[in-house]
Amino acid sequence: MYRTLTARRLWNGNRETFRNWFDATHPARWAWTQHAARRERIQGTLRDNPHLTVVHLTSARAARAWSRSLEADGARAFEA
Questions:
Q1: pLDDT tens figures, 34-71
Q2: Angle at Cα 59 formed by Cα 17 and Cα 63, nearest 5°?
Q3: What is the C-alpha to C-alpha distance for residues 17 and 67, in angstroms, rounded to an integer?
Q4: pTM here?
Q5: How far is it, in rounded angstroms, from Cα 40 to Cα 46?
Q6: Alpha helix (H) ranges present in 1-80?
Q7: What digits encode the pLDDT tens for the residues 23-37?
Q8: Which residues touch 17 (CB under 8 Å, ≥6 apart)?
Q9: Residue 54 in 3-state DSSP?
Q10: Alpha-carbon distance 38 to 17, whole Å?
């Protein structure tokens, strides 16, 4: 959306317009139309595999902290 609002030049002088968003192959439109089906598929996978752990990360900071905790846990596992 940022590129559309700012009319930022892409490659070869092209610019993204709002008209592009109506194209069925536009990545944002594709993601919007696939969201419900993907969500249902993921929920089904989790229902069928209760042993899986789901981690909800809502920010880059949370992702970094989670990653560091995995690194620390991994280091402790190799010390044993």
A1: 999 999 999 999 999 999 989 999 999 999 999 999 88
A2: 120
A3: 37
A4: 0.52
A5: 10
A6: 2-6, 27-48, 60-79
A7: 888 787 888 889 999
A8: 4
A9: coil
A10: 27
Both structure tokens of 31: 């993601």
Bridge partners (DSSP) of residue 9 are 15
Which phi-psi region, left, alpha or beta, contains residue 26 (left: φ > 0; alpha: ψ -120 to 50)?
beta
Token code pair at residue 17 = 């317009």
Q: CA–CA separation, 40 vs 47, rounded Å?
A: 10
- Backbone phi, then psi, for 14, in 5-degree steps? -70, 150
Q: How far apart are the first and last CA of the chain?
A: 50
Torsion of CA 6, 8, 14, 17, to 10 degrees: -20
For 2, counting Cβ atoms within 10 Å of its Cβ (0-12 exposed, 13-18 middle, 19+ buried), the class is exposed
